[in-house]
Write a structure and sequence with these properties.
The protein has one helix at 23-77; strands at 80-83, 90-91, 94-98, 101-108, 111-116, 119-122, 128-138, 146-155, 165-173. By secondary structure, it is of the alpha+beta class. It has one domain (23-173). Strands 1-3-4-5-6 form a five-stranded antiparallel β-sheet, covered by helices on one side. The chain has a four-stranded antiparallel β-sheet with strand order 2-7-8-9, with helices on one face. Strand 3 (94-98) and strand 4 (101-108) form a beta hairpin. It is rod-shaped. The model has no long low-confidence stretch (mean pLDDT 89).
Length: 175
């Protein structure tokens, strides 16, 4: 005599696609997904590092070029240099006259400022800091003095390798 047990439902009664996933399949999917997420986070972090590097370098280069161009233009068009007063002297500020207007370049809390009769302008951007600003008056013996300008620009953008720092120097003569 055979005893047959009849269950009201069996696995064979369910369609094949509604059975779900096994534990092993779920663990495999989660492992693959975890690896993919880690790789994507690393790629995203690397792209942010490259962006910060580019932003720091660009800020220092742009501000440095602008400051040199502005100083060169103003010194070449100046009628006289008042500070530094004597040939061979050095100063932290530059004062000159151009078209009866006094121009004074000076450093104020990491910002190069230009003060004229019309007010004060900040010359470098908010993402850079100026330091070690010096002006040295040089002579050529013909009454047309030259001014040597030296300054250091440092980026305020925080990056993994530290701040971008660049030294700038130029010598400009009065016309």
């Amino acid at each position: 005599m055979k005893i047959i047990y009849y269950l009201p439902f069996t696995i064979d009664h369910f369609p094949r696609n509604s059975r779900g996933f096994t534990l092993v399949e779920m663990l495999m999917y989660m492992g693959i997904l975890s690896i993919l997420i880690v790789v994507m986070v690393d790629v995203f972090a690397a792209s942010l590092d490259v962006q910060l590097e580019s932003q720091a370098t660009s800020a220092v280069t742009q501000d440095g070029r602008f400051l040199l161009a502005r100083l060169t233009y103003d010194v070449q068009n100046a009628q006289s240099v008042l500070v530094p007063a004597a040939v061979g002297s050095q100063s932290a500020s530059l004062q000159m006259t151009m078209n009866a207007i006094n121009y004074t370049y000076a450093l104020n809390n990491g910002t190069m400022q230009l003060t004229t009769n019309n007010g004060t302008d900040n010359l470098n951007g908010f993402d850079t800091t100026v330091s070690n600003l010096t002006f040295k008056r040089l002579g050529n013996g013909l009454g047309k003095d030259t001014v040597q300008v030296v300054f250091t620009l440092t980026s305020n953008v925080v990056r993994n390798t530290g701040a971008e720092t660049k030294n700038f120097q130029t010598t400009v003569g009065l016309r």
